[in-house]
């Protein structure tokens, strides 16, 4: 259900929908992020701060982990999603941003689990995501809007656009937001629906290094996504790979 990506360019996520979501929530929120897990070393460079911001930006990016499609007025889905980031714990961008005793990373991965709710509204689908990490005040929330451009048929794929936004709060030394625009193509084959997307993600961050020193970074990153939805009533399994 949860996969892992490489560095700032890799985000993989999985999802199980509806009834199983509530039972899996406690398991997924197993890698807590506390406010003390981010503490910038005054020696951090601009390039290291930019790298760190983009890695964390990939983690909070508000992807519903499903193809962008119109689901109609009756479309409604509640589930659990998780993003895993592969971290180089020995790199300067990490050692100058995260204390050595931090539990932010287990092994070489940092996990960002969240609850996702999606609702169809006629020709569009709106989704929202939220996570409050255990034993901390750190929260990340966001949303996405899917608008079909070409409706799919039995023999043709569906093409849709997705716009998304996410922000992270609860960390005094780092303010981070992400924005995304993606174009999706998807096609159903019985219970299987493969999909792919290309788009751009913008990260906008500002870090307080010392009371008198702050750094900021704004980056536009090309984002590629491929995924597969398996619908067999309940549960629905959706796996997505992005880079």
How would you describe the overall organization of this protein?
The protein is mainly beta. It has one domain. The chain is 12% helix and 50% strand. The chain has three helices and ten strands, in the order βααβαββββββββ. It has helices at 19-28, 46-60, 92-95, and strands at 11-17, 76-86, 109-121, 124-132, 139-150, 158-169, 174-186, 192-210, 213-231, 236-242. It has a ten-stranded antiparallel β-barrel with strand order 1-2-3-4-5-6-7-8-9-10. The longest helix is centred in the first third of the chain and has 15 residues, at 46-60. The chain is elongated.
Features:
3 helices; mainly beta; single chain
Write the topology of this structure.
Elements (H helix, E strand, L loop, with lengths): L10 E7 L1 H10 L17 H15 L15 E11 L5 H4 L13 E13 L2 E9 L6 E12 L7 E12 L4 E13 L5 E19 L2 E19 L4 E7 L1
Antiparallel strand pairs: 1-2, 1-10, 2-3, 3-4, 4-5, 5-6, 6-7, 7-8, 8-9, 9-10
* Mean pLDDT score: 80
Total number of domains: 1
Helix and strand succession? Answer: EHHEHEEEEEEEE
The neighbouring-strand order within the major sheet is 1-2-3-4-5-6-7-8-9-10
What assembly state would you assign to the polypeptide chains in this entry? Answer: single chain
Assign the structural class, choosing from mainly alpha, mainly beta, alpha/beta, alpha+beta, or little secondary structure.
Answer: mainly beta
Radius of gyration: 18 Å
Number of helices: 3
Strand content: over 45%
Largest β sheet strand count, sense and barrel closure? 10 strands, antiparallel, barrel
Helix content: 10-25%
């Amino acid at each position: 259900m949860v996969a892992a990506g490489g560095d700032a360019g890799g985000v993989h996520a999985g999802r199980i929908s509806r009834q199983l979501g509530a039972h899996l929530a406690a398991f997924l929120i197993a890698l807590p992020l506390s406010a003390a897990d981010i503490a910038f070393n005054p020696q951090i460079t601009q390039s290291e701060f930019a790298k760190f911001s983009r890695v964390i930006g990939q983690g909070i990016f508000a992807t519903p982990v499903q193809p962008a499609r119109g689901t109609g007025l009756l479309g409604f889905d509640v589930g659990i999603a998780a993003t895993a980031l592969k971290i180089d714990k020995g790199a300067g961008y990490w050692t100058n941003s995260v204390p050595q005793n931090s539990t932010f990373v287990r092994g070489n991965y940092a996990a960002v689990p969240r609850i996702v709710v999606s609702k169809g509204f006629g020709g569009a689908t709106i989704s929202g995501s939220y996570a409050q990490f255990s034993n901390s005040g750190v929260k990340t929330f966001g949303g996405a809007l899917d608008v079909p451009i070409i409706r799919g048929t039995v023999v043709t794929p569906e093409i849709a656009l997705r716009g998304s936004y996410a922000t992270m709060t609860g960390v005094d030394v780092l303010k981070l937001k992400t924005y995304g625009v993606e174009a999706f193509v998807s096609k159903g084959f019985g219970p299987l629906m493969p999909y792919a997307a290309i788009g751009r993600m913008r990260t906008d961050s500002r870090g307080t290094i010392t009371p008198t020193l702050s750094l900021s970074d704004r980056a536009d990153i090309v984002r590629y996504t491929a995924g597969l939805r398996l619908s067999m009533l309940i549960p629905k399994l959706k796996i997505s790979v992005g880079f």
